Amino acid sequence: MLDIVSILCLPLALAVLTALAIIDLRTLLLPNILVTCFAMLGALFHLSAMYYYGDSVSLGLGAFIGGATLYFVRLLGNMHYKTDTLGLGDVKLMAAGGLWLGMHDIMLAIVAGALCGLLHGGVLMIHGKIKTGKLPKMSTFSLPAGPGFIAGLVIIGLAKFWGLPHLSF
Questions:
Q1: pLDDT at 168
Q2: Nearest-5° angle of CA 14, CA 38, CA 105?
Q3: Domain tally for the chain?
Q4: Domain for residue 80, yes or no?
Q5: Which of 28, 39, 94, 118 has the largest CB neighbor count within 10 A?
Q6: Per-residue b/e over 59-75, b at no fewer than 16 CB within 10 Å?
Q7: 50 — alpha (psi -120 to 50), left (phi > 0) or beta?
């Protein structure tokens, strides 16, 4: 029974992350209810897997590190640009991701997500150049960060949970 629960948590989490990415691309918002659902699925997954992938302390520290790292980046960005540069939804998303990945892998997910966001931004800049003939101004260029961080969470999550080794048939 518990193995079925952990197996079901993964596609549900992917569905929630997909919904979050689409919503963020359309509205620049990550709804709290979906971020909370993602966090709760992570807690349920680890409980049903009997903490095979990390103990509760590592997972709790992962949530703290994921959220605190992005909150610190947000503070620095806001101080430098004198406007919101990173939403609190992104901060909460990475805290929830830390519940899934633990304290070590959440940092990998942040780096992978930042690289995915950079790639996304580069593609949008090139698209803007092709469409208008000139590059968009960096001072006014806006891009939702959530999809990049979601891609980072999925990449590192796939590496961590691939094959579900905690299942013994």
A1: 62
A2: 80
A3: 1
A4: yes
A5: 94
A6: bebbbebbbebbbebbe
A7: left
